[in-house]
Amino acid sequence: MSVPLPATTALPIAFPDSLPVSARRAEIEEALRAHQVIIVCGETGSGKTTQLPKIALAMGRGRLNARPGERGRLIGHTQPRRIAASSVAKRIAQELNTPLGEVVGYKVRFQDRLSPGASVKLMTDGILLAETQTDPLLQAYDTLIIDEAHERSLNIDFLLGYLRQLLPRRPDLKVIVTSATIDAERFAKHFADAKGKDAPVLMVSGRTYPVEQRWRPFEESRDHGLNEAIADGVDELWAGAAGGDILVFLPGEREIREAADHLRKHLAAHPVLRSAEVLPLFARLSQAEQDRVFDAHHGRRIVLATNVAETSLTVPGIKYVIDAGTARVKRYSYRSKVEQLLIEPVSQAAANQRAGRCGRVAEGICIRLYDEKDFAGRPRFTDPEILRSSLAGVILRMKSLRLMADGARVEDFPFLEPPSGRAIADGYQLLGELGAVDDAGELTPLGRELARLPLDPRVGRMILAGRERSCLREVLVIASALSVQDVRDRPLEQQAQADQQHAKFDDEKSEFSGYIKLWQWLQDARGGNGPHAPRSASALPPEGAAAALGRPGGGRAPQTRREMVEQGIAPTRKPANVAALPVAQRAELALAAARAALGQPLPQPSPRGRGSKTAAQLPPPLGEGRGGGSPTHKISNRQYEQLLRQNFISVRRVREWRDIHTQLHTVVAEHQWQENTQPAGYEALHKALLTGLLGNVGCKIEAEGKAGAAAGEYLGPRGIKFHRHPGAHLSKRPGRWVVCAELVETTRLYGRGMAHIEPQWLEEVAGHLLKRQVLDAHWEKKAGEAIAFERGTLYGLPVYSGRRVRYGQVDPAGARELLIREALVGGQWPEEWARTLPFLPANRKLVAQIETLEHKSRRQDVLVDDELIYAFYDQHLPADVVDGRTLQAWWRQTQRATPDVLLLTREELMRHEAAGITTAAFPRMLRLGGVDCAASYLHAPGDAQDGLTVTVPLFVLNQVLPERAEWLVPGMLKEKIQALLKSLPQRPRSRFVPLPQSAERLGEALGAPDRFGVGSLNAALLRLVREATSLDVKPTDFKLDMLPAHLFMNFRVVDEHGRQLGAGRDLGALKAQLGGQARGAFQALAGLRAAKTQLAAAPSPHPEQNEAPAGVHHAQEAIKPVADQALAEDARHTRWDFGELPELLELRRKGQVLIGFPALVDAGDAVTIEVFDEPGVAAARHRAGLRRLFALQVRDTLKHLEKNIPELQKMAVAYMQVGRTSDGAGGGTAEELRRQIIDVALERAFLVEPLPTCEAAFAQRTEEGRARLVLIAGEVARLAGAILAEYALAARKIKDTRAAPAATQDAAEQLQRLVPRDFLAATPWAALQHLARYLKAIVLRLDKLRADPARDAERMAQARAQEQRFWRLVAERKGVQDERLRELRWLLEELRVSLFAQELRTPQPVSVKRLDKVWAQIR
């Protein structure tokens, strides 16, 4: 049907009667004349997309219908995708029988097929939105058709809001909004007129064939999933040899691959269906694989597609559809600030769009893999992109276009569906991250620059930073690469080969550097002489570039030769329609216009014509013209494309990459920004990229010690965690700190486009975003100032921590407080301040004196509080004194006028006078063991040194008497007496109430000069208590464990260099631990063992003598001065030829008077004389030495005795089992037994008290012992034989008793204790006589064991408890046993006799209760 046109046009327009929209044409025209906006809801196949522009033409609209003298305007028609815009333009031009571009053309991102006189302009919605910058009122259009408005992309929503504001200012502008699945009511309300009347809605039916809906829900299980459900659907549709292609909708590429593999295996089992073709269809497919989907074919085909096939893209031959009901939807997470590709159920509108893909060639069937109830519960329409995207670009565009009045909010903009406040705040946050807006939300100078760039704000920020850091050329390459899909293809069946070819582009640290390598390879691979302009499949002419990017001031390109000459462009033959030019020439024109904008001379055309690309006046594009060598042959386009395919590089995406690079280069040229002539360094380039990617940095999480830290996981801003993308093009693992081009969440959060960075770069690039926190402010004595540790975080991600900063620069008031409190009051100031600030040592000395009074009196109310001292300094120091440097500078000026301004006085520091704290009561030196020892006092309850601490030289340790330590010092005597009285039982304690007065009275009595320090304090106090109470108070009634620790003297043992060797309040434990070292130190000091040990003399006594009375030693009369020369000789003696051996010796060494105990020491074939510091040790060594000296006198008798010991061989056989281990090793020998018998015989024959002390007594004792030695040896031998016989019986009995392992183990341990290998020498003679009885008791016990095992176990528990108690005490005393402990040791054996073998009887009554009394006396 043809329609006559107005007189201004002669173009015939035909409307096919088969299209439903043609029947409604008159109604549409009438509505469009009456209203400024109409809503056309046309179902799929209604013809709305192609017929609405023709209806507008028929109404007289468009440039074709302009009257003479009037400015012709366009009919704008938007499509959401480039391929849809170009295909619709071709179809309309074909219906109008006009060449493409003459009446109907199109303009998309990289293509412009539109002549100056065209009337209908097909374009993407992004192109129209970009034109709002150069044409805010859209004066170039009289009609706008917004098609596929249901997709609700950001561009569409922004256009609809923009048009809502624009329509009152453009009453002549007509707007048609149309789609197949549009929310008509919402759109109608949005475009209501000034009176509030909704825009009219026209419903147009479709012309498709009927589509049957089949619901086939499935339950996910281990054996049946989505792939099995799809296979069942294929079997159902192709049942009975039915034909027709099937389109399967799946959510993503991974699901498509899995489904393809499953279907191929499934179809291979069907003879009829095995030839069916299974093809994928998704956006990232190579051009060749996409073309296969649209090629003609004859067999069955299954196309597996994402939602890219829902709208605007018609797959030919589709008869059936299988809809999985899900899709990957891109959502922006406001929490993690990343784009998430989540699998979600599609809306009802999207499901209907999928169903509409079939039924276009014949009756169709749509199988939905979900139930009808699920479909009914889904939302009607897909959420608009504005509700699930970042709004930073929209806000920036609105700000730059001044779409909001001053003070207006983004929420006030007439969006079709306003975004949430959270989304707007997030957009502002991103702009703030880029530095585009200030704290008030207004554009900064940087923001105004960004707004002039028709780019994503992040990309624009990178370009601006690239200009500042001289890396603009590299940033342009990377920014253009990030704007397209990766040009590297990875076909499903050739992934390994593709990865191998792509490896040469991989960089070690940065995928961005990999783009540079790839770009360089693309330029070098083409060859040729000199630089080459980027090749593209569809480059825009200069004015197209400006229009597509929305640059301000983008004008018309030169159309005539005169204009080209005026603008400096070499005149070439150029058709009127620029779109008809070859691809290479159009790209050449775009780059030439960019160079002309920079004012650079253009090259002369090549004589051959084909060589006239571009001149090399500007810096050559990255990767071009760097060889400097001879020209190389330039390969043809076909060879070049073949080379790209061999390297698995998409030719189409390479062209897109180059086209975007050309457009970015044009934008740079418009702003007259100079590109860098030298290659940019890694640091400069990545700092520039960081400016736009600050929200995508990450730090690797160390898996060790981090619960749940996965390998290769990175911690990003705001607490997000992401992983390296599996397809990352890096030759090595990324470093600890990385930046990513984008963060995308699929099965997990991945970082794409990863590069290594240094954390310090973030401080320079993101300084305005770093949150700095000062932690742990403290005073440092060495530095003389307050120091803090700074921690910097970027959106919660720690960039650095623990950085030392001067606290005075951060918080002067806090630093001043630390200076006063820690340095001046606390004394933590460097030693060099003592010279420059003399008031500090003076104040310190005064405070120390008063603190000493506090420690001695054990009161804390003498020295004033630190706050008062702080207030003193705070009052006098100015506010600008914050560290040592400022303090010393202020003091140098102040001391001239008031030198005493910071000197403290005693009156200011003391609250009251400390009466009674005298040197006599608290002496500085105590005489212990004849040596003056330094005393110190500390009042710190709970501290190890609380109370009185005496520094004892090591050499005098063994001579310190525990009785003297009980008295402490006179000043502490009253307190200790009061504590001892308080520990008494109630009856005697009541006689001393009130205790303080009684303690003072007893303290005066015991503190008298003639009584203080004499004997034991506990014994002296016990006598006074008995006298005062007439009660039988026992020593154990004083509960010493109830006394506080400071009432026991604390000993600090030091060596000759002052180094501490040990400390504690238990003098016995210290002697057990250090007694051997102390003995060596004493002998070295005495000069008797100088050849073996060179120890220095003890410290000289303190000049101030202890004024407390010293005790008089009871053995003072036994001290005999001995000449130093006599002691210095290390003589060996075989007879008594050294005169009388005194009991004590007085030694003088370097001002010290020491008391020693001489003793004879066994030297094998002789004896020597040594002096010991302990009488007990001296006595033990003297007995052994004296025995050796007697043995030397009776050599002949001993030789006879060694050969004639009775029954020696028999005893030796039994002795061989003594000390033998379970594996048969060890055991005694006959020689050992003989030696022990002789030693015991010598002991019994000669070493009878009193021991000889002179030569005459020694000779007399020798003669007496010689006569009875043989008899005594026989007696010892008989006793040893009896013991060994009983030992053999007991050992055999233990071995034969197997029923009770606990009892036999206990008996074996007792046997080992009683009879070691040296049992004759080690066992005292009194106990040795009972040893056989103890062994008989073991045998009797085991004999009774079977009769009553329970009784044996009970008594064994009693005995072991006592023994464990004993050995614990021995361990506490480091193995030292005094007479009482040795007596208790054998009482424990008598206890075992009384418990297990009462018939053997005991010499004295023994029981557990009696032993408890003995324990009380020992304790």
Layout of helices and strands:
Layout: E1 2-3, E2 13-14, H1 20-23, H2 25-34, E3 37-42, H3 48-58, E4 74-79, H4 82-96, E5 104-107, E6 112-113, E7 120-124, H5 125-134, E8 141-146, H6 154-166, E9 174-179, H7 184-190, E10 201-204, E11 211-215, H8 226-237, E12 245-249, H9 253-268, E13 277-281, H10 287-294, E14 301-305, E15 318-323, E16 326-333, E17 338-345, H11 348-355, E18 364-368, H12 372-376, H13 392-400, H14 421-434, H15 445-452, H16 457-468, H17 472-482, H18 495-502, H19 511-526, H20 542-549, H21 561-566, H22 583-597, H23 637-646, H24 651-670, H25 682-690, E19 697-700, E20 713-715, E21 721-724, E22 737-745, E23 749-756, H26 759-765, E24 771-780, E25 785-794, E26 797-806, H27 807-810, H28 812-825, H29 833-836, H30 839-857, H31 866-876, H32 884-894, H33 906-909, E27 925-928, E28 931-938, E29 947-953, H34 962-966, H35 970-982, H36 986-990, H37 995-1006, H38 1017-1029, E30 1050-1054, E31 1060-1064, H39 1067-1086, E32 1119-1121, H40 1124-1128, E33 1144-1149, E34 1152-1162, E35 1167-1172, H41 1175-1193, H42 1195-1203, H43 1208-1215, H44 1230-1246, H45 1255-1296, ...
Parallel strand pairs: 3-9, 3-10, 4-7, 4-8, 5-7, 8-9, 11-18, 12-14, 12-15, 13-14, 15-18, 17-22, 21-23, 29-30, 32-33
Antiparallel strand pairs: 1-2, 5-6, 16-17, 19-20, 19-22, 20-21, 22-23, 24-25, 25-26, 27-28, 28-29, 30-31, 33-34, 34-35
